[in-house]
Amino acid sequence: MAHNKTMAFLLPRDTAVVAPGAVHVPDWLSVDRQRELVAACRQWAAGPVPMRHTRMPNGSTMSVQTVCLGWHWVPYRYSRTADDVGGGQVAEFPSWLAELGRDAVEAAYGARDESYEPDAALINFYDSSAKMGMHQDREEKSLQPVVSLSVGDSCLFRFGNTESRNRPWTDVRLESGDLFVFGDESRLAYHGVMKTYPGTADPALGLEGRLNITLRVTGL
């Protein structure tokens, strides 16, 4: 069984258009780049606004832990200060991460767009039990594409339609290093993480769990 599992990871996975404007690019990040992102996320998670479980308006808390760059996300708005966790100033959005976002959009859509300028990142950490329900990314005034980078454990990602949380949807297994971009007709599609697969991360990353780094253009 172990041999078969190893062989499965070696099989090539092709770029796929999951829906109009939604593209999955497997194995986009090298292991070295993933390790750099893990190190950067650890720094961001420590502050100035630390990673936390976001409290929802109904009083519940999200199972994922989140830290933000550029703009702080509070359900359902953005702020320059983390008013829900002490009011600290949000860490700056680094220029190298914006450049990585432009590279990602080019990889997904096949054309370079130098005007793509993400100014906010939501970095979510999933432990073995964390999930994220079906939702839309609609707090942004801009409808420029969302760039999603996966590092660490694999997950079952569900990408739905723009009308409701119900079917039709497509389930995609996202592995460490995968890129997922959604814009155009799919920019406001519902999506979520149904489960993670503990222990599937490359040990070389030194990470237990899954990091999801999403880059957005707020238009603010």
TrEMBL record:
<keyword id="KW-0489">Methyltransferase</keyword>
<dbReference type="InterPro" id="IPR027450">
    <property type="entry name" value="AlkB-like"/>
</dbReference>
<dbReference type="InterPro" id="IPR037151">
    <property type="entry name" value="AlkB-like_sf"/>
</dbReference>
<dbReference type="GO" id="GO:0035515">
    <property type="term" value="F:oxidative RNA demethylase activity"/>
</dbReference>
<feature type="binding site">
    <location>
        <position position="191"/>
    </location>
    <ligand>
        <name>Fe cation</name>
    </ligand>
</feature>
<dbReference type="Pfam" id="PF13532">
    <property type="entry name" value="2OG-FeII_Oxy_2"/>
</dbReference>
<feature type="binding site">
    <location>
        <position position="137"/>
    </location>
    <ligand>
        <name>Fe cation</name>
    </ligand>
</feature>
<dbReference type="GO" id="GO:0035516">
    <property type="term" value="F:broad specificity oxidative DNA demethylase activity"/>
</dbReference>
<dbReference type="InterPro" id="IPR005123">
    <property type="entry name" value="Oxoglu/Fe-dep_dioxygenase_dom"/>
</dbReference>
<feature type="binding site">
    <location>
        <position position="135"/>
    </location>
    <ligand>
        <name>Fe cation</name>
    </ligand>
</feature>
<keyword id="KW-0808">Transferase</keyword>
<dbReference type="GO" id="GO:0008198">
    <property type="term" value="F:ferrous iron binding"/>
</dbReference>
<keyword id="KW-0479">Metal-binding</keyword>
<dbReference type="GO" id="GO:0032259">
    <property type="term" value="P:methylation"/>
</dbReference>
<protein>
    <submittedName>
        <fullName>Alkylated DNA repair protein (DNA oxidative demethylase)</fullName>
    </submittedName>
</protein>
<keyword id="KW-0223">Dioxygenase</keyword>
<dbReference type="InterPro" id="IPR004574">
    <property type="entry name" value="Alkb"/>
</dbReference>
<dbReference type="GO" id="GO:0005737">
    <property type="term" value="C:cytoplasm"/>
</dbReference>
<dbReference type="GO" id="GO:0035513">
    <property type="term" value="P:oxidative RNA demethylation"/>
</dbReference>
<feature type="domain" description="Fe2OG dioxygenase">
    <location>
        <begin position="117"/>
        <end position="219"/>
    </location>
</feature>
<keyword id="KW-0560">Oxidoreductase</keyword>
<dbReference type="GO" id="GO:0008168">
    <property type="term" value="F:methyltransferase activity"/>
</dbReference>
<keyword id="KW-0408">Iron</keyword>
